[in-house]
Input
Amino acid sequence: MNFSPNSTFLYVLAVLVILFIIVQSLFFLVRAYRRAQNLGMDMRQIRKIIASTALFTIAPAFSILLGVISLSKFLGVPLPWIRLSVVGAITYETPAATSTATALGISLSETITDPKVYSAIAWVMTLGIMPSIVLVPILLRRIQNGLVKLNSKDSKWGDLFITSMFLGMIAAFLGLVFADIRSGLPGFIPIFVLLFSALLMAVCGLLIKKCHMNWLENFALPISMLGGMVFAVIITPLIVR
Amino acid sequence: MKNTYIEKTHLYGKIWIWTAAVLILAVPLAICIVYDAWPGLTPVFIGLLGVAPIFWTVGTIEVVTFTPMLGTGGSYLGFVTGNLTSLKVPAALNAMESAKAKPNTEEGEVISTIAVATSSIVTTLIIAAGVFLLTQLSPVLNSPVLVPAFENILSSLFGGLAVVYVSKNWKIAVVPLVFMVTLFLLVPSLASSVGILVPVGSLITIGAARLLYKKGML
Output
């Protein structure tokens, strides 16, 4: 078969993988939803959580789509579509493609036409992310057993332990925002955006507590995130001239 | 007594994740077979050499760090659909916070799974729709006006999340925050290794929390 990085065969492959992901997600969603009903949980709240999560997901999903578009310039559409829908992230896939192309002495400035180069890149992208998948079924139960032991010994410390893990992640990303400030005022843009997003979240919190606008509780994160992104669009041209 | 819902989630989760592993490996294999394009071991090995040391380390770290936050169903699904730090983990945390459910409880497990699944479905559908509308969407998404929005997506996300978590746990948060801000100010090049710094942040926070807890300050 003649090779093209945008061939029908590759599109069919991509559609099969995408269908698998959707069926797997629906399977887990329906099971968890039914379990929530059996546990007598507040189903109105659950539906609100589904709506707010969907809303919160839209902006990052477009950012992932942007990754597909940028990789499609040299890899065609199907492979980046598969890779960024399953495990991958643009931060993984670009270095994987670049590393392989460099190893083969190929430039990534134009669309790949050699099927061997293409398959080498596909293998490196795939093998590079396998530990994330393979280690979950191997390690998950052991990690959970450790946490159960910790909780049964001292439940307050068990809660603090998990909270500390969240905070560690948040601290790392908050620190990251400060990485560029040596480059002058433009380097402060991420900090301004972070502060604005934090301010929006604080305002939402006040509205929930003082004005009893409880419906906001589920939408505070999407509002602060999208607000932060709009703020970035407004302030960037004012700072970077 | 063992919780049958969680036990079954482990069973189904393992079936799904191993099937996903086979499917993911089948993609490059199918490309090789159909186009008779076997690249040979050397280019794949050299290509992997450039990325595997970092990817495999970060992948392993992510499994250890994020599985306690995502729970059983959330982990089996989230690690297949990916984009954990920028999407699945914040989605799960926010959903549990809204429902006032703790991780490691069955309510937390259910809420986290619902959030990860919803996020995975929406992401997959948006990317799929985007692929079919690529010609129309590409100029809009690549327009210079929108570049700052996508460049600042993490700042926008973590600003809001920080208010929720730091305000509730500010005593524990001070030490890791000061450490991370100082670290990134001193060594800005670490920005590309933030994945490795997440567990470092977690370990520092756990240490600080333990100290405060022992002293009865929490």
